[in-house]
Design goal:
The chain is built from one helix and eight strands. With 129 residues, it is mainly beta. The strands form two sheets. Strands 1, 2, 4, 5, 6 and 7 form a six-stranded antiparallel beta sheet that branches. A two-stranded antiparallel ribbon has the order 3-8. The protein is globular, with a radius of gyration of 14 Å.
Amino acid sequence: MSDYVKMNIKEDLDDAAPGFGLGDHLEARFGRKAMDLQQFGFSYQKFVPNYRQGFGHVHKEQEELYLIIGGGGRVKVADDIIELRQWDALRVEPGVTRQFEAGDEGLEYIAIGGNPTGDAEMINDWWVG
């Protein structure tokens, strides 16, 4: 086994969105398993313009950091709606629900989460209106 792993996010990580029926609205590539990461994970997500995720999600124990790398939009975190633009970084504590919405230029971000894994709960129809 090597002391490092190098992958290209766009070329080497599969786009998981089509498998969930979301391929027309977003691109979602996950690096934790593919890169055999032990202490944290990450995903790359790109939303088409004006697309709002169809669900919120919450982690029981995992905090997450979202780094906006392109476009902008909004995110609902608990009861707050927060504007996002390129190079914003947003930390969300465990136990807090969040859901993203792209603006007119789309939304592109990298999400980074620690351990434990697999503690996410999806909440349909959470951000209504």
